[in-house]
Specification:
Layout lengths: L2 E6 L7 H10 L4 E6 L9 E4 L7 H12 L3 H8 L15 E5 L4 H11 L3 E5 L11 H18 L5 E4 L2 H11 L4 E2 L19 E9 L6 H6 L7 E9 L5 H14 L5 E4 L7 H5 L4 E4 L6 H4 L4 H8 L3 E4 L3 H10 L2 E3 L5 H9 L3 H17 L2 H15 L1
Parallel strand pairs: 1-2, 1-4, 2-3, 4-5, 5-6, 6-7, 8-9, 8-11, 9-10, 11-12, 12-13
Helix pairs in contact: 1-15, 2-3
Length: 381
């Protein structure tokens, strides 16, 4: 049986995409997973790697190295995980690197084991946080270095959507295979729509760059039929602004009795929990390339939960909503624009959108994606 190493600098308890891949791969290959945190398991080997703590001294060192464009040294300062090889005694047949920051470590191990590397890019790395000046000055050059140095060497590459795939192909001359963030197929029935009570729902990470307050503002323009519940997960950022963001949203929501900020839902319970709602909502401003081209987990969660959907004109989300006639797409990214679309809906409209999700759920799911992923891996050995 082939031995596959999957590297993800993340927490498997909250990283839905990686966890879905792990659950697939563990049944087909001898699997080792290297990550920061995960539930204990006997189904595959777990190699925990400590999350690097950037002390003030290390931050200064990192900034200096990045400023001097000493990228190899900067990388090892930010990601000191090269002792991982000591936890892997058996030969490897393939390494899967999740996002470009895992590539130097992946190739360090690949050289020892003479095995190929497959890259799963969750974002377009060279423009990840391009809306932030500090990131552009220091980390954008590092990500460009990682992409230009290592992407030409990967055996295969996957990413989450067409927009990201096209940009990688344009700049790095590799054609990534698209594997979306679709959830597993859930055999659910849409909940009944009550004409005088339209329940909107949003779930996900609370970070200021997502401007979640715009969806709360939207409620000021909606008629009395509508209410909004937001299940928000803290991002775990060290930034005081980000730490305080959920509290800021709660304060804003307290001014409108039709808005509630609720505790996060366990990832495996999201779809069945939100099935009780009528419409999933996501309005995210295109402040950077990745937000402009986002195709997030939550869109597919809405579909599996058999919800009608309301989104902004983010191209790939809008395309899916329109293709399957699942809901409404606002004309722009303002609260008033999406509210105008929602206010026009009848109970019958929403019930029809919810019914249409059955076809989308049958076609856009993790089981269909699994066929694509296994094909990519098998062709990479």
């Amino acid at each position: 049986m082939k031995h596959v190493l999957l590297i993800a600098f993340s927490n498997l308890k909250t990283d839905s995409r990686v966890r879905r891949h792990v659950n697939l791969l563990k049944n087909k290959y001898r699997l080792t997973v290297a990550c920061h945190e995960a539930d204990a398991t006997t189904e595959y080997k777990l190699a925990l790697i400590d999350k690097a703590i950037l002390t003030p001294a290390r931050k200064i060192k990192l900034a200096l190295m990045l400023g001097l464009r000493l990228f190899k040294q900067a990388y090892r300062t930010q990601y000191p995980h090269f002792s991982l090889g000591q936890q892997i005694s058996e030969p490897l047949d393939l390494i899967i690197a999740n996002d470009v920051e895992a590539l130097p470590l992946a190739f360090h191990l690949a050289e020892k084991h003479a095995c190929p590397v497959v890259l799963d890019a969750h974002e377009y790395a060279p423009r990840h946080f391009e809306d932030k000046l500090i990131w552009r000055l220091f980390f954008q050059p590092l990500n460009m270095y990682l992409c230009s140095t290592y992407i030409p060497r990967v055996k295969a590459m996957i990413t989450i959507g067409r927009g990201l795939a096209n940009e990688y192909e344009k700049h790095f001359h590799i054609k990534p295979v698209v594997i979306t963030n679709a959830n597993h197929f859930h055999n659910l029935t849409p909940s009944a729509v009550q004409g005088n009570s339209i329940r909107l729902v949003h779930h996900g990470i609370a970070t200021p760059s997502r401007k979640l307050e715009v969806m709360i503002e939207m409620m000021n323009y909606l008629d009395e039929r509508f209410s909004l519940d937001m299940y928000l997960l803290s991002s775990g950022s060290v930034s005081s602004k980000t730490k305080n963001y959920p509290a800021d949203l709660k304060a804003l929501a307290s001014k409108n009795s039709r808005v509630r900020i609720l505790d996060p839902i366990k990832s495996e319970l999201i779809v069945t929990t939100i099935n009780a709602y009528d419409m999933g909502v996501f309005l995210i401003p295109p402040i950077n390339f990745n937000y402009e081209n986002t195709l997030p987990n939550k869109l597919f969660d809405f579909i599996q939960a058999r919800l009608a959907i309301a989104v902004g004109p983010t191209p790939e989300m809008a395309e899916i909503v329109n293709r399957y006639s699942l809901g409404v797409v606002s004309n722009d990214f303002t609260a008033k624009s999406l509210a105008e679309k929602l206010n026009q809906l009848t109970t019958e409209d929403i019930a029809r959108f919810k019914a249409n999700t059955e076809t989308a759920a049958q076609q856009l799911n993790a089981e269909e994606n699994a066929k694509i992923l296994i094909d990519v891996i098998e062709r990479s050995f």
